[in-house]
TrEMBL record:
Residues 441-545 form the Peptidase M1 alanyl aminopeptidase Ig-like fold domain. Pfam families: DUF3458, DUF3458_C, Peptidase_M1, Peptidase_M1_N. Aminopeptidase N is involved in the degradation of intracellular peptides generated by protein breakdown during normal growth as well as in response to nutrient starvation. This is Aminopeptidase N. Residues 223-436 form the Peptidase M1 membrane alanine aminopeptidase domain. Belongs to the peptidase M1 family. It is an enzyme of class 3 (hydrolase). Residues 29-183 form the Aminopeptidase N-like N-terminal domain. Its cofactor is Zn(2+).
Length: 872
């Protein structure tokens, strides 16, 4: 049943060209496909075309209709026997977009026809060799009703169109670039358009068109601005220009994930496209900017050079995530961006890597490829690319990228091809590095130090090991770049000199681990410095060091590496929290005085600093990061400890928090400039601490912020904290919020998510009640994620309530959703995979829900794979 990387075979034939004709209708859309076929052997071949949920009307080869005995059709294929070595195949099928609830292939979203073909959606449109190494030139004709579908779009360039009888019209599109079927796109509907243009650095003018529902078109300006900056950035940073005269983006409300990089016609979830300060938070603005950039960057890393097969997914995704990270870090604060990315990696990818669904960034087998669009393939994949950047340095890395694109433009390649280009430009041996592609699990790096005062030398001894993961018991040592520095006793950054070198060098350098155990000796030191290790998080590993609390406080104060200053604060807080959880409930958990004092210093110094950095550094580590450090997750103790820590910090730091709140409010000019967003981040972090610390005293401050601000960031932060403390104002303001924004679907999602995330023991009932709300529907993935995704992933004590109500609720909905939209159902189901991390009672309950799901007749491949692997 699983598909294996080792079984890869090239396709039996090529399609030089495809002409696709769509006659659109919600219930019966007719698709005529004409394929110019050439077999690779030059001899007749049997051809098994992929197809799912298609109604076959007719087949012709070279204009001759085939009889019933000349082909076979089953649930997944159309098999043609003895296809001539060169011929023209014409296939007519019908599909029903209105009934398509899987949102793969051609479907309707609020009356707009749109497509999603990655990974294997094209086969729900017509019979085809639906695999990324089959690259074809596309000619498309779209015919539809003129009144309901005035806009008809596909990839490439518009080359004609006109009116037809009966109120219909048509449009013709041609894409000059060969592409795999997963990059095909079609959109038709009544859409408003925002237009602009970009002049490339070689002087070509590219028309930019952004399409959305007319009610939302005034929320597209930020996406357009982000697109223009992305185009410029890719030219400046990588010398990569856009290659067509037209670039289009369409936003639709029903979409299985964020967005899709179809050639010349990106299709976006509105949640990744729309932004206006009264309806979207600063986080949304940054997310829109990032995703617009990500999809645009795919034009080269994905479209021009694509993947040979789906096992290579990280080839395009890891690289493109790395590129979008670089872009965001150039646009805003590099330190804050790195911190955010590392938090995400550690909270989600590390958890995945430690669970039953662990897989290498290039998996070796899968049942359903949709299950492999994971944090591992994307985010860890980006870390692997980043390590190449660290090992080679910026200049050689850029040369490697240039070579990769020059060598492979227009083809479908593998991860080896990418790393080979890096090896060729640098002359480096990257064979051991390749293990990152095949080995799953998060490596653990331990480091101990020894200072010899008689010789003035510091020896760092490193060991590395990777815990076993399902199907991979034995692990090999990896090639791990460790960026280090040494911080002197009075805080200065020391120039580094390794034993054997004859002079002091820079204050930071990269050590390379390739063996299980290695040591490095720094010489020329007067006194024992504090080592700053894994600066910038130079490798996706768990670092265990022998740094003491005093060392960490020293780093927090003095390290020139901002990431490691933040990391020091996180380690101090994490240590204190984990200790408090272990001794709870015998003793009242309190954060220690040194940590509070460090926070206080940070707040006082915050006027001159990067305010978003201060806010991040003052924030307690995420729940999931802490949970990973516990042998058994005690949800009640965790909840108690986090709450007490927040209360204590809020009370003890009242004065500096309030001062920060006020000064940030003055800096905040209501714009979305980086500095204003940073000020709001710190302002709202301070507000949360103040209100949690002294609810009665500071509730009015939150209420007035909610009432007076016109910005969603401020409103939502205030509302969240008010709802959480469950005071006098929370309930009525929640109602006020819904009343104001009930016609903005994306804001209604926030309203659902906010309530699903309120951590208390009543939340299963609250979520149950919200599912009865008229605005709730299982048909919209964003709404499902807002309510059920938030509840199951971000509401520890509610979801894991000890009577199992949360588990039952989620399983009920997964089962209901599975037959409609398997991809979204399977995604929701992944939380159950964490069952081994809880106490026996909860383990039993989670397992029995997984078993219940597995027993559902006709369960999708998607959910089957997740549930069965989760049970292990
Ligand atoms: N390629 C898209 C992106 O990363 C995501 C496609 C996700 N597809 C899926 N089947 N989950 O931009
Ligand atoms: Zn992507």
């Amino acid at each position: 049943e699983p598909i294996r990387l080792a079984d890869y075979r090239p396709p039996v034939c090529e399609f030089e060209e495809i002409s696709l004709d769509f006659v659109l209708d919600p219930d019966v859309t007719t698709v005529t496909s004409r394929l110019k076929v050439k077999t690779r052997s030059g001899a007749p071949e049997t051809l098994a075309l992929d197809g799912r949920e298609l109604t076959l009307k007719s087949i012709k080869i070279d204009d001759r209709p085939l009889g019933r005995d000349e082909f076979q059709v089953d649930r997944e294929h159309l098999t043609l026997i003895d296809v001539p070595s060169t011929c023209l195949i014409e296939i007519v099928t019908t599909i029903a977009p209105r009934l398509n609830s899987a949102l793969m292939g051609l479907y309707l979203s609020n009356g707009i026809y749109c497509t999603q073909c990655e990974a294997e959606g094209f086969r729900r449109i017509t019979y085809f060799l639906d695999r990324p190494d089959v690259m074809t030139r596309y000619k498309v004709r779209i015919e539809a009703d003129l009144a309901s579908c005035p806009v008809l779009l596909s990839n490439g360039n518009p080359v004609g169109g006109g009116k037809l009888a009966n109120g219909r019209h048509f449009a013709l599109w041609e894409d000059p670039f060969r592409k795999p079927a997963y990059l095909f796109a079609l959109v038709a509907g009544d859409l408003a358009c925002l237009e602009d243009h970009h002049v490339t650095r070689s002087g070509r003018r590219v028309a930019l068109k952004l399409y959305a529902d007319s009610a939302a078109i005034d929320q597209c300006a930020h996406a357009m601005d982000s697109l223009k900056r992305s185009m410029r950035w890719d030219e400046d940073a990588y010398g990569l220009e856009y290659d067509l005269d037209l670039f289009q983006i369409v936003g639709v409300g029903d979409f299985n994930f964020g967005a899709m990089e179809n050639k010349g016609l990106n299709i976006f979830n509105t949640s990744a496209l729309l932004a206006r300060t009264d309806t979207s938070t600063d986080g949304d603005f940054q997310q829109v900017e990032r995703i617009v950039a990500h999809e645009y960057f795919h034009n080269w890393s994905g479209d021009r050079v694509t993947c040979r097969d789906w096992f290579q997914l990280t080839l395009k995704e890891g690289l493109t995530v790395f590129r979008d990270q670089q872009f965001s870090s150039d646009m805003h604060s590099a330190a804050v961006k790195r911190i955010a990315d590392v938090m995400l990696l550690r909270e989600t990818q590390f958890a995945e890597d430690a669970g039953p669904l662990a897989h290498p960034i290039r998996p070796e087998s899968y049942v359903e490829i949709n299950n492999f669009y994971t944090r591992t393939v994307y985010e860890k994949g980006a870390e692997v690319v980043r390590m190449l950047h660290t090992l080679l340095g910026a200049e050689l890395f850029r040369k490697g990228i240039d070579l990769y694109f020059a060598r492979h433009d227009g083809s479908a390649v593998t991860c080896e091809d990418f790393v080979q280009a890096m090896a060729d430009v640098s002359g480096r041996d990257l064979r051991r590095f390749m293990r990152w592609y095949s080995q799953a699990g998060t490596p653990e790096v331990r480091v101990t130090r020894e200072f010899d005062s008689s010789t003035g030398s510091l020896t760092l001894e490193f060991t590395q090991s990777t815990p076993p993961t399902p199907g991979q018991q034995a692990k090999l040592p990896l090639h791990i770049p460790i960026r280090v520095g040494l911080v002197g006793r009075d805080g200065q950054a020391l120039p580094l000199q390794l034993a054997g070198e004859n002079a002091k060098g820079e204050t930071a350098r990269v050590l390379e681990l390739t063996e299980e155990r290695q040591s490095f000796t720094f010489v020329g030191l007067d006194a024992a410095p504090v080592p700053s290790i894994l600066r910038g998080f130079s490798a996706p590993v768990r670092l265990r060091s022998d740094l003491t609390k005093d060392d960490l406080l020293h780093l927090l104060k003095h390290d020139e590496d901002a990431f490691n200053r933040w990391e020091a604060a996180q380690s101090l807080a994490a240590e204190a929290i984990v200790q408090a959880i272990r001794m709870s409930p015998q003793r009242q958990p309190v954060p220690d005085a040194d940590l509070i004092q460090a926070y206080s210093r940070l707040l006082e110094g915050s006027i001159e600093q990067d305010h978003a950095f201060v806010a991040r550094t003052l924030s307690l580590p995420g729940r999931s990061f802490i949970a990973q450090q516990l042998s058994v997750i005690d949800v009640d103790a965790m909840h108690r400890v986090f709450k007490t820590f927040q209360e204590t910090i809020g009370r003890e730091l009242e004065a500096p928090l309030l001062a920060a709140y006020r000064s940030m409010a003055r800096i905040d000019d209501g714009s979305t400039r980086t500095a204003a967003m940073a000020a709001r981040t710190l302002k709202n972090a301070a507000l949360a601490y103040l209100v949690i610390g002294q609810p009665a005293k500071f509730e009015p401050l939150a209420v007035s912020q909610y009432r007076q601000s016109s910005m969603m960031t401020d409103r939502l932060s205030a509302l969240r904290i008010l709802a959480e403390i469950d005071g006098a104002a929370g309930a009525s303001l929640l109602e006020d919020f819904y009343g104001r924004w009930q016609n903005e679907p994306l804001v209604v999602n926030k309203w659902f998510a906010l309530q699903a995330g309120i951590e208390d023991y009543k939340s299963p009932e609250r979520v149950e009640a919200l599912m009865q709300h008229p605005a709730f529907t299982l048909a919209n993935p964003n709404r499902v994620r807002a309510l059920l995704g938030t509840f199951s992933m971000a509401n520890l004590i509610g979801f894991h309530r000890e009577d199992g109500a949360g588990y039952r609720l989620l399983a009920d909905k997964v089962i209901e959703l599975d037959s409609k939209n398997a991809q979204v159902a399977a995604r929701l189901l992944t939380t159950f995979g964490r069952w081994r991390r809880f106490d026996l009672h909860r383990q039993q309950m989670m397992k029995s829900q997984l078993e219940r799901i597995l027993a559902v007749p006709g369960l999708s491949r998607d959910s089957y794979e997740i549930a069965s692997k989760s049970l292990g």
